[in-house]
Amino acid sequence: MHLNIYFILIFLVISMGGYSQHKISGRVTSTSGEVLVGATVQVADTTNGTTTDVNGGFELPGVSHGVSVVFSFVGYLNDTIEVSEQEKLEIVLAEASEQLQTVTVRAGTSSIDELQPILNELITEKELVRAACCNLSESFETNASVDVSMTDAVSGAKMIRMLGLDGRYVLISREGIPHIRGLNSRYGLTYVPGTWIQSIDVGKGAGSVLNGYESMSGQINMEFKKPEESETWYFNAYLNSFGRMEANVNNATKLSDKWSTGILLHANYLSTEIDENEDGFMDLPKSRQFNILNRYKYHSERIVSQIGIQYMIDENAGGQRGFDFGSDLLASPVYGFKNNARRFEIFGKTGLLYPEKPYKGWGFQYSMSYQEFEGGAGRRSYGADEKTGYFNGIFQNIIGDTRHQYKTGMSYLIDGFDETYYSELTGDLDTTLTRTESVPGIFYEYNFIPNEDFTLVAGYRLDFHNLYGLYNTPRLHVRWAMNNHMTIRVSAGKGYRTANILMENSQFFASNRRIILTESPKPEISWNFGSSITSHLHLFDKPLTLVLDYFYTDFLNQLIYDQDQGSDKLIIYNLQGSSFAHSLQVEAQYELLKHLKMKAAYKYYDVQQTTNSALRPLTFTPRDRYFLNLGYATDFEKWQIDFTWSLNGPNRLPAMSMDPGNLQTNNTSPWYSMVSGQISKGFRWGNIYIGGENLLNFRQPNPIISPDDPFGDSFDASMVWGPIVGRMIYTGIRYKIK
Amino acid sequence: MKKFVVMFALVTIAIVVKAQTETIEIKTSAICSMCKSTIERALAYEKGVEKSNLDVKTKVVTVQYDANKTNPDKIRQCIAKAGYNADDVKREEKAYSKLADCCKDGGH
Questions:
Q1: CB contact under 8 A, B45 and A684
Q2: Phi-psi map region of A37: left, alpha, beta (phi>0 left; psi -120 to 50 alpha)
Q3: CA gap A292, B54 in Å, rounded
Q4: Closest CA to A512 of A654, A717, A281, A339
Q5: For residue B106, what is the nearest residue in chain A, using CA coordinates?
Q6: A267 CA to chain B: closest CA distance, Å?
Q7: What's the whole-number average pLDDT of chain A?
Q8: What is the ipTM of this complex?
């Protein structure tokens, strides 16, 4: 810990001391020659950004040769340029279709008033291709703020963590519409193919009220490839050393001046039985998925609209070797794991614009989805479906002038759940859970932007939950640029969500712990407070970015999944006592040599929860994590080499004794490292890549307890703190036709 | 073995010496920073081109190339294929039609 304090001291000293003035400057105008006031200028994949002044002028320090800078403004198309030298830039933004997205809710990028006050990191496609595999859960490999880990030893599912907390406390949306939530909060990340994603916005801490009450620890918004601006054809094929195959085809077609359509297609297949640790269990389940999205977009000067459909079918079969897609779970002589999902969605949005007043507009977005799950593990089966309807309408305008802006509107969510859990284990839960949530809500958000150095966003929303009563959600964000190399942000906000106690704990299906529900679940409620300092400095004439952030999440209620009352049970109840998470992160980004960039981070999590009447560190959550990423890229990505190393500290493991009087509470996992790398060679038409994950071939020893007696009482495959699969090598090709 | 190393070194030096870097300035129809990226990117993947830099104000792109591998005509063709006029070489209309609106005539 002493080391860490030094870290922070050094950081602060450097933060205060730098006065180097390496910067880009210029002016942003519209195609009709108007100056754009308040347009956002941001270095891609960083938090380094500013806004234009009353003359459309800007200065952005801390920008190095070769980086991409994104220019955006409400009601205009984004422009991305690669800085080839430190020069005066004349940026011209075209007025266009993208107004819709800024009018409708987004967690970020192109809308200034949301981008600026929230500590947020934009991951562009250029960054995403640095780690090639495979879906959303793997898209954060080169990002220090989001942790990814395995949930258990049979499902192959990965989960994310932010601020030390489970990803279910993060609001994950697709183009502003809440997407990974409800029943797919555990597996939903794998239902989003990586090649469909154009960019991801990662925001830490409480989000905007426009997006709902669910963002408790952060929000992640993904933008999919846009029909009107993507390449006509995009092909991708991928193969890895486990035998996993993937194929992706994207198409974008302009139908007329105003209409365009896009198709995104994905399929993957893995049928090999991989059992590297020879415990008789497959380390990864066999899997196959087919996923398609088709949407139509219309844009004219005053109306921007789109409607789309998505259909996905995903099947997994794991457990002991020999268990197959078609096997009958409960009757199978070998221990099986099964998770089959189907999802169908219709979604759309419409924006009404005022071309002469780009700050004014209406936005409506909606989504209707149906999803079902069928599966289980061993002698437990689980089946569920969820029907969701969502509507959000927003109006935005100014009060007097653009220094005072507001957004207001209403939303409605209807969400029906039907879950059946059946178990042949004596003493285990055996139940049907049904509920329908109906939640109308209203919200108002005020933005105060007196000058380019200060932004205040104050929002409030009221939701009327049919089952749990009134939700009131205040949120506050303040950003202050102290000088041109240092920005301070603070945020505070309340959040709510309904837990899905079975699906969220489906990793425990792969154990013979008896699931005991002692009371009916109440909604989870938390407060989140955060602050951060971002500095853009120069060290030996090269830009150095330092980010220091601290977040505190305090739960008023939380569903406790108590593994501490004996290794034979999992007891579920509402929080009695306190539960909180402190999260501290120091991150440095620096250009070591020309073309060689480094990102290094240290994270400290102190996450504690009251289980079995005592406050204890949360299980399976490391206290310390180190992260290092090196990226080498020649001009225009002709060659790109990436290397990522992460060092994970010890986790507290649940008590492993069956006897409640003899709990070993000091059980911890060891330190371990994960290393991955990738090399890609660019061509005019795309690129070819080869890479590897878990290159050190580290695996958690004996991840499954009693693998030889899977139907016996002590069997447990949910005690997972490290990687289950060893080294994996992959290769692939991306081919684009403009 | 020693002989081989020496020969290898000589050949390498010969190749390095032989590389004749020349510079040419080409007037293009670029209008904005996006055009600049498009053209510089196209040139980066063109055989023999070592470096290029387009000045948006004057629309002139300065290209450094290896005279043994390419020539000014080929470089102009490459720019035309990206959708831009290059000196007297006319742009390819098909490529031009695919450019973003702000990069087309009257886009500024």
A1: yes
A2: beta
A3: 41
A4: A717
A5: A31
A6: 29
A7: 85
A8: 0.70
Query: Which of A85, A94, A636 is nearest residue B102 as measured by Cβ atoms?
Result: A94
Written as six digits, the tokens of A372 are: 């079902």
- pLDDT tens, position by position, A662-704: 444 458 889 999 999 999 999 988 899 999 999 999 999 888 8
Question: Which residues lie below 8 Å from residue A356, measured CB to CB, with a gap of 6+?
Answer: none
Indicate the burial class of A32 (C-beta count within 10 angstroms; 0-12, 13-18, 19 or more).
exposed
- Classified as helix, coil or strand, A416 is strand
What span, in angstroms and rounded, lies between the C-alpha atoms of A467 and A439?
9
Read off the pLDDT of residues A62-116 as tens digits, 9 standing for 90 and up: 777 667 788 887 666 677 777 765 456 777 776 653 333 333 322 222 222 233 5
Write the secondary structure of A420-448 as one string of H (helix), E (strand) and C (coil). Answer: EEEECCCCCCCEEEEEEEEEEEEEEEEEE
pLDDT, one tens digit per residue, over A193-230 is: 989 998 888 889 998 999 899 999 999 999 899 888 88
How many Å lie between the alpha carbon of B12 and the closest alpha carbon of chain A?
23
DSSP assignment of A86-113 equals S-EEEEEEPB-TTHHHHHS--SSTT-HH
Rounded to two decimals, what is the model's pTM? 0.81
- Distance, CA of A378 to CA of A425 (rounded, Å): 10
Radius of gyration of the CA atoms of chain B, in A: 18
- A77–B34 CB contact, under 8 Å: no
A chain contacts of residue B41, beta-carbon cutoff 8 Å? 636
| Residue contact A77–B102, C-beta within 8 A | yes
